[in-house]
Design a protein that fits this description.
alpha+beta, two-stranded parallel sheet, two-stranded antiparallel sheet, 3 helices, 46% helix, 19% strand
């Protein structure tokens, strides 16, 4: 997964970008559950004069910690996800 300025700009705003990112992460994790490897490359992403690169890495880490396997189905659900505004 490659996160860059063009992707951020295509989403229109920060909240929409994070919503899209978390949706993609959950979908990717569901698809890759047998392989257990998901590589994410985050480029420099500028918003309101700030580089969001390390904030994005931090939010991905927090989101990933909230994913849990549910029962015998092995389905992944996100619980209490915080998205900064």
């Amino acid at each position: 997964m490659n996160l860059n300025q063009a992707l951020f700009d295509s989403r229109g705003n920060r909240k929409s970008f994070f919503d899209y990112l978390f949706h993609c992460l959950k979908s990717s994790f569901d698809l890759l559950r047998n392989h257990r490897v998901l590589a994410i490359k985050v480029g420099n992403i500028l918003h309101a004069g700030l580089n969001l690169k390390w904030d994005i890495y931090a939010q991905i880490t927090i989101f990933a910690e909230k994913l849990r396997r549910q029962g015998s189905t092995g389905r992944i659900t996100a619980q209490r996800i915080y998205v900064p505004t």
